[in-house]
Amino acid sequence: MTTQSGPGDGRPDPTLGAVVRERRQLINLAYRLLGSLADAEDVVQETYARWYARSPQEREAIESPGAWLTKVASRICLDLLGSARARRERYVGEWIPEPLPDRAEWISGRPDGATPDPADRVTLDESVGMAFLVVLESMTPAERVAFILHDVFRYPFAEVAEVVGRTPAACRQLATSARRRIRASQAPVAPTVQQAGLVRDFKRAWQAKDISALIGLLDPDATATTDGGGLVSAMLDPLEGGEEVARYTVEIADRVADLVILERTVNGQPGLVAQQDGVTVTVMAFDIAGDRIKHIWAVRNPEKLRPWTVGREAVRLHVTPFLAGHSSDGEVRPKGLDALTVCGLLQTRCGTLAAQPCDRMAGHGVG
What we know:
Elements: H1 16-21, H2 23-34, H3 37-53, H4 56-61, H5 65-90, H6 103-107, H7 130-136, H8 141-152, H9 157-164, H10 168-185, H11 192-208, H12 211-217, E1 218-227, E2 239-240, H13 242-255, E3 260-266, E4 269-276, E5 279-289, E6 292-299, H14 306-309, H15 313-324, H16 339-345, H17 347-350, H18 359-362
Parallel strand pairs: 1-6
Antiparallel strand pairs: 1-2, 3-4, 4-5, 5-6
Helix pairs in contact: 2-3, 2-5, 3-5, 5-9, 8-9, 8-10, 9-10, 11-12, 12-13
């Protein structure tokens, strides 16, 4: 592969392969740290922008590009987490982490099987379960970063300390505190088959408008939280009590007659998707303890449903601004990255990495 090492310098970039291979890891890391795929994508793009802002000599002198990229991405996430509390206070209603579809669900519905966004590259394990992500939201930024880097991604505390700006011993304490929060909030996890059965029964009772059946499936202290972001109708505060949740669920069925409910995998666990006219309008995640549903999270904010609704157009929206020197939100980025480099950096969107500008890139005006 002979790709330019930087904007217009004409030299092959010997680090490109190593840099490109880190993208999936960075997306996984940033999503767990921020709970938002959109923010994770921005962090990874900013990380690569900082990498290519360095001279070719500076990049070649970095012994481990992956370690450098991880450290930079983690620090960007730490800064974002520091300002997130203030932003959440201005958020309309409840804030719920952005839900992710299963990889198979992501691909289905697209006639060419394209994967335009990197959510299919986020490893769907217990560390992206909605209940787990919600607990992470209760942690301090330093706790969250220390815990995710050490306990999930297995980085030693000496390296975590370089990101957080504290001693390894202090980072060890941060991770310990985070583990206590996790243990205090977690109930024994029901087998996936059992979870799927309960979610299926909930769907059927909802469609039948059977309040008694819904109450029987819900824990007496069950809660339901919705996130509309002020863009669509949604409860501003959590609804508490199994009976109240059941009645509210039936009210929705009464008000929206054409709602289609589908069983889908949400963040690696059984969930539901509500569609109107073939468009996903709500994604629901469940927390199940024993044989009862303990909590329901319903994401309705259309900005958080992008992985469930947006197809190949997303590639053009993300790639073209990158080449032009601006991100999709208008922020200025380093200009002049050649098509091969961008194809490499965005391979999780295009699903390909070629020695020539690939057909998918060319189809979006790149190359």
